[in-house]
Amino acid sequence: MKESNPNDFLIEVQPLGGFDKPLSYSISKDLRHEIKVGSLVKIPLGARKLLGIVWSLKGNKPNETTQIRNIISLIHKVPVLSPDLTNLASWIANYYACSIESCLEAMIPKAVRDGMQPKKRRLVRLADSSKDYSQLTKRAPAQFSAIEFLRSQKEPVPSSTVLSKIKTSQNTIRSLVKKGIILESEENIDRVVYEDEYLDANEQVVHNLQLTSEQKKAVSEINEDLESRQFKTRLLCGVTGSGKTEVYFEAMQMALNQGGTILFLVPEVALAPQTVSRIRSRFKNEKIVVWHSHLASGERADAWRSIINEESKIVVGARSAIFAPLPKLRLLIVDEEHEAAYKQEDNPRYHARDIAVVRAKLNDATCLLGSATPSLESALNVQKEKYQTSKLSKRVDNRELPLIHLVDMRREADKTKVLPILSQQLVEALRDRISNKEQSILFLNRRGFNTTMLCPECGHVESCKDCSIALTYHRTDGYLRCHLCGYRKAAPNRCKKCNSFDLKKKGHGTQRIEDIVIGLLPKHASVRRVDADMMKKKNLFRETLSDFRKGKIDVLVGTQMIAKGLDFPKVTLVGVIDADLPLRMEDFRASERAFQMLVQVSGRAGRGNRAGEVFIQTYAPHSPSIQFARKSDLKGFTEDEMDMRKEFGYPPYQHLIRHLFRSRSESKVEYYANEWAKILENKNIAGLKIKGPAPAPLEKIKGYYRFHFFYFTASVKKTIKNLGLIRSEFPLDPDVHDILDVDAQQIG
Question: Which residue among 20, 516, 561, 620 is least enclosed by CB atoms within 10 Å?
């Protein structure tokens, strides 16, 4: 190991390998101009050699006896993190109670950390195209054919192209290279993600588009935000089909004109292809980078290089794209900002929407949040004037919102004496669409996994007396439990609201619905299912959506991934099966999610030239969220739901932190959860409301039993600090682990 000397320069490096604070290292004088904050370096740590991120530049090494080790090498010539990302990593670690290391590993693709090089290909060209090589005609005909082919090419071509065209072997090329007749070179292969089959259609739409007066006003307001070159957050609230995407594009053009870069987030990987297609059709001269977890390692590495080398100014992706190392960041767009999919469920458990706001602040940039059904968190921030707002209250081209029908499934059950899955009204509407050569979407919200008790007579669902959420039925002991506070009671044999003995335990999936629909429709009708299972098969989901767009599929049966963002002009019918499911979830956000889901999925109908119709099947037609959704009354719903949240002290009025204990031993995890509860009770932390311990909704996952607490607090950082101090004096059994999830979106 090279010893440092007084002329060496000191830096702080954050190791990637189980060490959660920066360490001091020295670099030689000749490396001072190459190493910057955010550089990836190899360092010695004890007997190990680890990767690390340069955290700060401390200055010249003082003349002291303490020996400071030198770094081993610089991995990449350019920093792997933009300056704002190192600051963001510190913020995430403090706020979400996670390690710096986990933040950095989330920010830097593994392929980049591993030093993956770009894929290359060999190019060949004639050294001198004026020379005559006819003497090779008989002696080496394959070589002569290769020469003549290259003579006809204006640019260097891949050697593989030459081999395929003249049907020869690699030896032919090698011989010509050795003789100096042809010259070789290398180029990086630029892998394009989502080469677009929708381009022509999108181009036509863009070229004929005229902004509405509301769109023009929104564009003007956003442009003012961008021109200020100060941190701004704006909520673009527009009904489905109101043209939010076009407003995004106008804002993007402004940001590009300013010489800035753009980050465009979508909530699901499934929405990325359509979004990328639209952006490519609009910004033809810009290289668009796609960034999400489903990319292959090589694709992720290529994307990173394109950003770092400033070849691309626009990045599109799901939540992990929030860490794309874009320099000169001017605009961050979070489409469908209300979606829970923006919350990362693994460490670090960040919320990409909230991180977008923080990152915009670090860059004095504009953060634009878009939704037809904004989250209550964003709505409250608008009320507090933390966010500005722009509104689009009408669909483009004066198209009407779809006509929404509520189908009371209690009456359907009375007719058939069973709990039907599809109402007769919906079946007839589906058949009509087949006859008229129009398309339909059937939506099933499978977000929940729990079993609830439903009264088909009156629609009543058994709920917790203290938490205002649905209770879960446990077959093992016949009890109903609240997985928020731990309350339980024996499952009743009659409905407490109408005294009916006909209580049902509810639950079905997309495959069964697909089979039923196929059996009910004409044989020539094409029915296709879309759900999470399809995402496991590369390109299948995208191919299905492409077929649907082209009219090859008549009915699409799907889950939440088809409920938002997708635009299919030929869809005139949407059917919502089991609209009550979100309402039966043991979650205080149940009403909000039900309302958002119904409005979003209803908005898929009637986006073209034909009017749309929506059938919402429900056992609780008088539920406030369903009634507000039927009228598309965002204001009414928000006010009603905010009142409930304020009464119970739920988000957005307070933050929610979930504390999960897990172990392979049921007795151990229950014991430690109860002991932790006793300690918290004795500490009596000011401003902290505690619920639990309670078994998690899925009590056992992958061999681990789970108990959890919920903390409601006005100050996350203060609470995290207090909990950390208490936790440091509370040793756990090696088989018991605990996790903090700040601003948890799911209670399961």
Answer: 20
